[in-house]
Design goal:
mainly beta, globular, five-stranded antiparallel beta sheet
Length: 143
């Protein structure tokens, strides 16, 4: 697996579909998946519960992401960031992948996927996902 942006969604933002994806909304969600999740960043377009984690302290379809913000940290660079997201008092097994999707939009379009690099487990503990100092993602429009 790898991390990435779901191209179909961004194509719909930029083509005649003009998908109204507002990245600053506080209604987007992080859904957790196991290691059998195989994201297709060029073809997957909508949230699916296939291979989604289940366990104590986790609600199917994920958790809202707060503190979302777009910024311009440098010339030609767009940064997308959020607050940390946590699942306290959870008992989860094999968490490996996170999909962020626009829950408020029709069809639940996928925004981005995060490969955690290894499986994570909690046993009545907290799963905490903290964005990197460079944000959830950055795009350099002038490489």
């Amino acid at each position: 697996m790898a991390s990435g942006l779901y191209v179909v969604t961004y194509q719909d933002v930029l083509d005649t579909s003009q998908l109204a994806l507002d990245l600053d909304l506080e209604t987007h969600k992080f859904a957790l998946f196991n290691s059998t999740k195989s994201p297709n960043y060029n073809g997957d377009g909508a949230y699916s519960a296939t291979n989604e984690i289940s366990g104590t302290g986790y609600t199917a379809a994920g958790k809202e992401v707060t503190g979302t913000a777009l910024s311009l940290p440098g010339a030609g660079v767009l940064k997308y960031n959020s607050d940390a997201v946590s699942w306290p008092a959870s008992t989860l097994t094999g968490v490996r992948h996170i999909d962020m999707y626009a829950d408020a939009l029709s069809g639940d379009p996928l925004i981005m996927g995060i490969d955690l690099g290894t499986d994570y487990n909690t046993s009545d503990g907290t799963l905490l996902v903290t964005p990197h100092v460079n944000g959830l993602f950055t795009i350099d429009f002038t490489p």
